[in-house]
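Recall the central idea of this unit: under ordinary conditions, the amino acid sequence of a chain determines the structure it adopts. In this exercise we apply that idea directly, starting from the sequence alone.
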Amino acid sequence: MFKRILIANRGEIAVRVIRACQEMGIETVAVYSDADKNAMHVQLADLTYNIGPADASQSYLNMDALLEAAKATKAEAVHPGYGFLSESSEFAEKVTNAGLTWIGPLAETIRQVGDKDIARAAMLPSGIPMAKGSDPLTSESHAIEAAKEVGYPVILKPVAGGGGKGMFVAYSEEDLKNILQIVNLQSIKFYFEHYIEHSRHIEVQIVADNYGTVIHLGERECSLQRRNQKLLEESPSIGLSPEMREEIGALAIKAAKSIHYTNIGTVEFLFDLSNNQFYFMEINPRIQVEHAITEEVTGVDLVRTQIHIAFGEPLTLSQKDIEFHGHAIECRINAEDPDNNFLPSPGKIEFYHEPGGPRIRVDSGISAGLSIEPDYDSLMAKVVVHGRTRGDAIKIMQRALNEFKVEGVKTTISLHKRILEDTSFCTGDIDTQFIKKRLPAYEQTPPKRKLKDKMDLAALINSSMYYA
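Accordingly, the structure predicted from this sequence is:
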């Protein structure tokens, strides 16, 4: 097994990987920017290495600085976590070319699934259903014609990127023309998909070793979203019958095998509620923010599994070994003000008390006295609960959120409380429009940007600091 792993990340995912390594007897290297010198992941790791200033482009996104840190600390492998460079085929390639092990899928796989247009094309021969889509758009006139062909409503998506960034929905040609005022089709590759408005967002966790074995660990319900960005996830989905669950699991394995996928990943689908049809969206070639709920219902440690696979070990589990127990829910706690259009709320944490007690897990990388830095994503912590039933899990989560106390910055705790009190949520009557329909105050339209802000949009889409 590896003796030392460098974690090319920060925050709660860096802490999560450190803890898994500690259980496996593996030493860890924490990298940090000047802004993170007192961060929790730095305090917990065996070795630490400064990689530059707070600006992520000069630190956590600086491939040369990360490789220098790995070389200086004699690390044998690199775990990218999620966000930042986790989906960079270039970085994965540089890591392996430096003689280190990349803890994730192969660079060529990341390259293939990172481009949604290429990924969709790769799925076609396997017969996996997909919503009608377009080729990459080349001009405004091409976009208008392509939208007519695909059929309104359409969702305009960047070919690269993720986490709901840079997506726009047009219900008419007039909508589309307004959107094209802030989208530069020459600098960013976009394409259309037919927008399935009444749908659930369902994803499946896959695990694949280097010897052709692929299994799935069930599905996660990710329909609770704001502007295409996930807020709350649960497993299993209350909206699927046993037959549907078997179908989507088989589709996910088929998708993974069609591109010879290795390590862990997530296959994402839209479930059209009008015809009970699954439609392939994309494959995320990394650990997901919401991986903990899968761990809770299956008992499988996904980070440790990643490390074992990267070391070259075959899977010791088969599909028949996977059993699902109870129901898990995760709430993402961000340093944002939900009552002020989710304005980021950086600053020093004056008081911080995490919930505890039976069946509650909190994954975080912060504590009282530390600061939420404005340079990075606003995710502070993830509250994960596991109940015997969905109703049980909801009650446990309500207790957990009531116990969670944070002073010094605004958080999304109040929003999650409102979601959990909503009768439609409690009965399972949810879809991707839930926030818009049931809590419209939290789905405000962002201020319209002027034409000069096209470069701001490009920077947002091309950034790897935000994740799904």
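DSSP finds 16 helices and 22 strands in the chain.
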